[in-house]
Amino acid sequence: RDRAAWIALAKGGFVVPDGQRAVDLLTEMDTLLASPDPVLRDEVAYSAAERWILREKKLSPADLRSVMGLWTKNLDEGLGESATDRV
């Protein structure tokens, strides 16, 4: 999806499109969590995760383990690098 599609999802109230699952969208948004673009990172990816996980409880325990595994793995990426905007 492009930037416009993600922003449209957010502006539409994060309604999961028919035939799609929140966990799959969150997995697809994984790269947005590290985006230098604050709209994609904060207003789309973090906000979608907060809504679907905490407020609407759209993820099953297995779905939660899946995204947590993905996100935990990402914490190690870029460690020790210099001259980048990564951690």
Describe this structure in words.
The chain is an all-alpha fold and 87 residues long. The protein is 55% helix and 0% strand. It contains 4 helices and no strands. It has helices at residues 3-11, 22-28, 38-55, 61-74. α1 crosses α3. The chain is globular, with a radius of gyration of 14 Å. The two termini are 25 Å apart. The mean pLDDT is 92.
The amount of beta strand, in percent, is under 5%
Structural class: mainly alpha
Spans with pLDDT under 50 lasting ≥5 residues? Answer: none
Can you give the helix content as a percent range?
55-70%
Distance between the termini: 25 Å
**Radius of gyration from the alpha-carbon trace, in angstroms:** 14 Å
Q: The biggest beta sheet, please?
A: none
Secondary structure tally, helices: 4
Order of helices and strands: HHHH
What's the shape?
globular
User: How confident overall, as mean pLDDT?
Assistant: 92
Q: Would you report the number of β strands?
A: 0
